[in-house]
Design brief:
The complex is a heterodimer of chains A (about 300) and B (about 300). Chain A is α/β, with parallel strands linked by helices and about 300 residues long. Helices cover about 40% and strands about 30% of the residues of chain A. A six-stranded mixed β-sheet of chain A has the order 6-7-8-3-9-10, sandwiched between helices. Chain B has helices spanning about 25-35, 35-45, 50-60, 65-70, 85-105, 105-115, 120, 130-145, 150-160, 165-170, 170-200, 200-225, 235-250, 265-290, and strands spanning about 255, 265. In chain B, strands 1-2 form a two-stranded antiparallel sheet. Classes of the chains: A alpha/beta (about 300), B mainly alpha (about 300).
Chain lengths: ~300, ~300
């Protein structure tokens, strides 16, 4: 079931259209939101949270309409904003507890879960310190604690690794993966860092100029691309190529020794090695051109230009 | 199992009622206020006028007891416990409650806005209106305890000491204590919250609050003198409140201006002024209290 549904969702801010007739249903467990600055990523997230009413169209989150059921949606959502968001003089435990209570938890349960969540994100020892004294990495973790303290069904993370050092980034990635894998939670992660999105997400939505230009399943993309090979052979390769074509491979020779090959579903790479051995062709290099997320992103940007 | 050994799990317990959720904010704010010695001392001092009034009410009814102790209490005989007595008490309380609001108010919204905490509040099942009501109720709770609550107690004590006939004759005072206090507390609380939201910096917000009351009063007087009008009096919020107090406590529908140009002002203009100020403060709050600010 799709947990985000966009139905011709448009949104203008200050008279400027930011989101333009977004339509689609998204069901990935963890969706990465990518796009250049000003593409409308954060605005889309904030529209899903009901911060801005749609100019036209609507969106449904977990089957609930953002126009009419925003309170129910907010009961089931956790949000980690991009920028620093805390009250400087408050201790982390008090702040997280207050946020849990605002989400509807009774005071005792809120206190217990605030302790648990702060330990979970690695701030257990620092939980009585004022948030204003936290380092940037600790503040990010505190924001994550605030986002998950009430046990939401869906968590929206806006730039979760923003400003983190390598160790902090690894810790954040571990935590988000653990939340994704061990709990029944849907995640939407917005980031500029393609590597992070590759680490976290199974589906990617790429936005440009307020529109969704690409939506793809990363695993399927990788699987599809694994069938596209680049080979470098040595010696006579015509018999090898003929045999490969008989197996159903599409071959294109680039120069004498370089070959580009698309494998059918039934053929695996070890079949090619067997053919090469049979036809005494040396395979000196074999790489399957794995479309990285960067390639997908660049293609989407190019498509957006057209 | 020890708390620190527990791991993160989904919450599946009961939820609190949505109606009373705004009360979470004042509870946390009042915890902070009550943990501060400074605020506790200020609060105790704010009750001093009521304690003095209590002593006067008590001894006015027990002049013989004072004489028995050898104290000459004849001066108390000319003291009349009526609308005028309560009016003077509440004019003093006007200033004390203003100072309490000036101490507490600027620190209520400014830190949330300065630290960008609004998206965290408003991404929860918690609306902007609940947020403002929550913050407002902090000020109303504290200032109520130093204005109309002890005022009603004094009214009750006077009734107990003199009998129900006094209470019946002075029913107007009871209404005046409630209506007048709420109007004044709402006005200064909303102004303090609006400034706290607007300025985002606590000391400057406090200074602006003092500025609004004292500078505008001076500006009003100067306007009266230069423009030969009386309407400048309305720029002085404490004068506007005094018009309403006198109307409520003493049934005076015309307010005498004590500074040049001397004359009278209809008391309802004070009420309209205070309501307009409340409306303006609410507009400012509606403008500033948003999950995110749109930069045009």
């Amino acid at each position: 079931m799709a947990f985000i549904e966009l139905d011709r969702l448009s949104l203008s801010l200050g008279g400027r259209p930011i989101l333009k007739e977004l339509t689609g249903a998204y069901s990935g467990r963890c969706i990465g939101l990518l796009g250049p600055n000003g593409a409308g990523k954060t605005t889309l997230l904030q529209a899903l949270l009901g911060f801005y009413p749609p100019t036209s169209g609507t969106a449904r989150v977990l089957g609930l309409d953002v126009r009419t059921q925003i309170r129910e949606i907010r009961h089931r959502i956790g949000y980690m904003p991009e920028n620093d968001a805390f009250i400087a003089g408050m201790s982390a435990i008090r702040f997280v507890r207050m946020m849990a209570e605002l989400s509807g938890l009774p005071p005792e349960a809120a206190m217990e879960r605030a302790h648990e969540t702060l330990f979970y994100v690695g701030l257990g020892e620092a939980r009585y310190r004022p948030l204003g004294t936290y380092s940037l990495g600790m503040k990010q973790m505190a924001k994550l604690a605030v986002a998950i303290v009430h046990g939401p069904s869906m968590v929206i993370l806006d730039e979760p690794t923003n400003g983190l050092d390598p160790a902090g980034r690894v810790r954040m990635i571990q935590l988000v993966r653990e939340i994704r894998d061990t709990h029944d939670i849907n995640l939407i992660i917005s980031s500029h860092l393609l590597r992070d999105i590759e680490e976290f997400c199974d589906e990617v939505m790429i936005m440009k100029d307020g529109r969704v230009v690409t939506y793809c399943n990363l695993e399927e993309e990788r699987r599809a691309n694994r069938k596209f090979l680049q080979l470098e052979t040595r010696g006579e390769n015509s018999a090898f190529l003929e045999a490969a074509e008989l197996l159903g491979c599409e071959c294109a020779v680039d120069g004498r020794s370089r070959v580009k090959m698309v494998l059918p579903e039934t053929v695996e790479i070890h079949d090619l090695y067997r053919l090469a051995q049979t036809h005494t062709t040396q395979i000196r290099r074999l790489q399957y051109k794995r479309d990285s997320l960067q390639d997908i992103f660049m293609k989407a940007m190019e498509a957006g230009k057209k | 199992m020890a708390v620190y050994k527990r791991t993160y799990t989904r919450y599946s317990g009961p939820l609190t009622s949505e109606r009373g959720r705004f009360a979470i904010l004042p509870r946390y704010a009042l915890e902070s206020v009550l943990s501060s010695r400074f605020y506790t001392v200020a609060f105790m001092l704010a009750l001093v006028p009521h304690l003095i009034a209590l002593a006067l009410i008590y001894f006015r009814s027990h002049i013989d007891a004072l004489s028995g102790l050898g104290i000459d209490a004849r001066a108390l005989q000319i003291l009349s416990i009526d609308g005028g007595f309560f009016l003077n008490l509440f004019i003093v309380e006007t200033f004390i409650s203003f100072f309490m609001v000036a101490l507490l108010g600027p620190g209520l919204i400014a830190p949330d806005l300065a630290n960008n905490a609004m998206p965290l509040y408003l991404s929860r099942p918690f609306s902007r209106v609940e947020y403002v009501i929550g913050k407002l109720s902090v000020l109303l709770a504290v200032t109520s305890l130093i204005t109309w609550v002890p005022g009603l107690l004094l009214f009750g004590i006077q009734t107990a000491l003199t009998g129900l006939s006094w209470s019946w004759d002075n029913l107007r005072v009871l209404v005046a204590i409630l209506l007048g206090s709420w109007l004044w507390l709402l006005t200064i609380s909303l102004i303090a919250l609006a400034l706290s939201a607007w300025v985002k910096w606590r000391p400057v917000a406090a200074a602006a609050l003092f500025g609004i009351f004292f500078v505008s009063a001076g500006f009003g007087t100067v306007s009266n003198v230069l423009l030969l009008t009386r309407w400048g009096t309305l720029l002085n919020l404490s004068s506007a409140m005094r018009m309403v107090w006198r109307w409520l406590f003493l049934s005076e529908t015309q307010y005498r201006i004590a500074t040049p140009p001397f004359g009278t002002m209809p008391a309802w203009t004070g009420l309209v002024t205070l309501c307009a100020v409340c409306g303006l403060a609410l507009l400012l709050l509606a403008w500033k209290i948003r999950p995110v600010q749109v930069v045009r």
